[in-house]
Design brief:
CATH topology of the largest domain: TIM Barrel
Radius of gyration: 22 Å
Structural class: alpha/beta
Function: Specifically catalyzes the decarboxylation of meso-diaminopimelate (meso-DAP) to L-lysine.
Family: Belongs to the Orn/Lys/Arg decarboxylase class-II family. LysA subfamily.
Cofactor: pyridoxal 5'-phosphate
GO molecular function: diaminopimelate decarboxylase activity; pyridoxal phosphate binding
Strand content: 15-25%
Oligomer: single chain
Pfam family, one: Orn_Arg_deC_N
Length: 423
C-alpha cells in the first residue's frame, strides 16, 4: 500500500494534519470550521498573510534605499484584509471607487493609496481627490484630461501622477491576465506615453513623479521584468518607477514559482543597471500576498458515475470563477482524511447550471462520501474578489483563523441580501 500523501507546499504556512487525519488551518480544525460556519466558506490563515507582507518589505529593504510595497487589492478587496495589511505598514493600490472606499475603511492612509483604472470616471477621480489619494496612474490621454479638469475645479493643488506605459513585453501567462503586450487595454504604447509625459509635465494641475508598468499576473519567469524595464528606459529620467506586481504563486504541487527574494532582486537589479541608481521603486504584489493564505471549504452533496466520477459540492463558479475563466488548476483534499492515500480520481464539480462549473478536473481523493468536507487551497486571491450570485448562490463568509481562534470577518449572504436593492 502506498504511503499516506503529504500536504504540498501550496497550503498556508503552518498547515498541519493532526493525529485524527484532520486538516488544521491556523490552529483550527477544518472539519469543525465547516460545522460551525457552514460551507462554502473562505478560510484565511492570518499569519500567512503577515509573513508574506513582511518578506516583501524585508527583501526590498535589503536591496533598495527608497521603495514602497503596495497591496494590489483587487486580489482580495475585503475590509478586514485591508486592515490587516495596513497594519503591516505597506501601501495600497485600488482599481476603482469601490476598492478605494474599502481601503479607506480598512485604515490605509490616503497618501499611500494609488488609484488605477483604464476607464476612471470623473466621479471616481473626484472621490480620490476628496479623500487625498497620493497617486493617480494615468492610463490614457482622456484620463489625463479628465483629471486635469477635476483638479482645476477643486483648487486643492496639483495631483501626483504616474503615466502607465505598455512596454510591449508579454510574460508567460494566460492571455486573460497578460497586460504588457502592445495591444493591451491598459496603458499607453511607447509613442503615446511620450506624448502623455510631455503633457503631464507641462500641466499646472499635475505633478508627474514617474512611470508605471505591469506586464501580467501569475508570472513564473523573471526575465520579462528586465525586458520591460529596458523598454521604458528611453522615455526620460524620473524619480519613481512603479513596476507593478506579477509574481506567480504555486497552485499545485508541480509549480515552483520564484522566491520573493529572487523576484525582488530581479526587479531592483534591472532598475539599477538600466535606469541608474537612486530611483524610488514601487511594487504592487497582490496574488503573492494573499493567494496561498486562503482555503475554501465545501460539503459533498452528490456523487455519480457518468463515465467519470462526478463529486458535486455546494459551491463552485459562484465562489471560485478562475477555473472557468482561465482554466486554473487546483488541488483538493478531504478535510477529515487530509493525508490519506488517494483512491479515486474525480471531477470535483460545482452546483451551478453550467457544464464548465468544474473546480478540479482530476482531483485525487480518498473514496469520497456525501457529507465529506472538501478543502481547496490557494483561493485567497480572486475567490472573494470575483464571487457572484449566479443561480442565486449566496456568497460565502470569510473566516480569519489565527492561533487556534476563528473570527468571521464577512458574514454569509442571506436570501434577503439578494433582493435588498429591489425598488
Amino acid at each position: 500500500m502506498a504511503a499516506a500523501q503529504q500536504l504540498s507546499h501550496v497550503w498556508p504556512l503552518g498547515t498541519t494534519v493532526d493525529e485524527r487525519g484532520h486538516l488544521i488551518l491556523g490552529g483550527c480544525d477544518a472539519v469543525e470550521l465547516a460545522r460551525e460556519h457552514g460551507t462554502p466558506a473562505y478560510v484565511v490563515v492570518v499569519d500567512d498573510v503577515r509573513a508574506r507582507a513582511r518578506a516583501f518589505v524585508q527583501a526590498f529593504a535589503a536591496r533598495c534605499d527608497d521603495f514602497e510595497v503596495t497591496f494590489a487589492s483587487k486580489a482580495f478587496p475585503c475590509t478586514a484584509v485591508y486592515r490587516l495589511l495596513a497594519g503591516e505598514g505597506i501601501g495600497c493600490d485600488v482599481a476603482g471607487g469601490g476598492e478605494l472606499a474599502l481601503a479607506l475603511r480598512g485604515g490605509f492612509e490616503p497618501a499611500r493609496i494609488t488609484l488605477h483604472g483604464n476607464a476612471k470616471s470623473e466621479d471616481e477621480l473626484r472621490f480620490a481627490r476628496e479623500a487625498g489619494v497620493g497617486t493617480v496612474v494615468l492610463d490614457s490621454l482622456h484620463d489625463l484630461e479628465r483629471l486635469e479638469r477635476v483638479v482645476a475645479a477643486d483648487g486643492r493643488g496639483p495631483q501626483t501622477v504616474l503615466v502607465r506605459v505598455t512596454p510591449d513585453v508579454r510574460g508567460e501567462t494566460h492571455a486573460g491576465i497578460s497586460t504588457g503586450q502592445a495591444d493591451s487595454k491598459f496603458g499607453l504604447g511607447l509613442a503615446a506615453a511620450a506624448d502623455a509625459i510631455a503633457r503631464a509635465q507641462a500641466s499646472p494641475h499635475l505633478q508627474l513623479d514617474g512611470l508605471h508598468l505591469h506586464i501580467g499576473s501569475q508570472l513564473l519567469e523573471l526575465a520579462p521584468f528586465r525586458e520591460a524595464v529596458r523598454a521604458i528606459a528611453g522615455l526620460g529620467d524620473f524619480r519613481t518607477y512603479n513596476l507593478g506586481g506579477g509574481l506567480g504563486v504555486a497552485y499545485t504541487a508541480d509549480q515552483r514559482p520564484p522566491s520573493i527574494e529572487d523576484y525582488v532582486e530581479a526587479k531592483v537589479s534591472a532598475v539599477r543597471e538600466l535606469l541608474g541608481p537612486g530611483r524610488r521603486i514601487v511594487d504592487e504584489p497582490g496574488r503573492a500576498l494573499v493567494a496561498n493564505a486562503g482555503v475554501t471549504l465545501y460539503t459533498v452533496e452528490t456523487i455519480k458515475q457518468n463515465v467519470s466520477t462526478w463529486v458535486g459540492v455546494d459551491g463552485g463558479m459562484s465562489d471560485n470563477l478562475r477555473p472557468m475563466l482561465y482554466g486554473a488548476r487546483y488541488e483538493a483534499v478531504l478535510a477529515d482524511r487530509a493525508a490519506a492515500e488517494p483512491q479515486a480520481t474525480v471531477k470535483l464539480t460545482g452546483k451551478h447550471c453550467e457544464s464548465s462549473d468544474v473546480i478540479v478536473d482530476g482531483a485525487a481523493l480518498p473514496t469520497p462520501h456525501v457529507g465529506d468536507v472538501v478543502a481547496t487551497p490557494v483561493t485567497g486571491a480572486y475567490g472573494h474578489a470575483m464571487a457572484n450570485n449566479y443561480n442565486g448562490a449566496l456568497r460565502p463568509p470569510i473566516v480569519f483563523v489565527e492561533r487556534g481562534e476563528a473570527t468571521v470577518v464577512v458574514r454569509r449572504e442571506t436570501y434577503e441580501d439578494l433582493y435588498a436593492r429591489d425598488c
